[in-house]
Description:
little secondary structure, 133 residues, two-stranded antiparallel ribbon
Amino acid sequence: xxYIAWGHSAVASPWGEVISQADEKDCIxxxxxxxxxxxxIRQQIPISFQRRGDMYSVHNNMTDKPQTRINxxxxxxxxxxxxxxxxxxxxxxxxxxxxxxxxxxxxxDGSHAKHNQRCGDNLGPVIITKDKK
Length: 133
């Protein structure tokens, strides 16, 4: 390994107090866990029951099945959706969707307004302008 492990493994209480600690040599440490005390302390730390599931969700896309899909209709058979535009083919102003709800995707049809109202987001389109020379 490119690093050196220094040992000193430890068992700590939910408050971070070290209950048992090993030294730098190979060894096994044992400790009893008071599950009732653990439950009482977890109730004092409100992180799990104050979670705002209405505001956000946390998941790992590498291991968890995605909870919501953003793209629900455009090129679903593609492994990855990527678009290429030739700037010369665009008009003076091109408006691209970022909420994935436009019926004209990848062009914007204003669907982001309803999307924002529904979920409290602040998405707007990508607007590309071309200077007239």
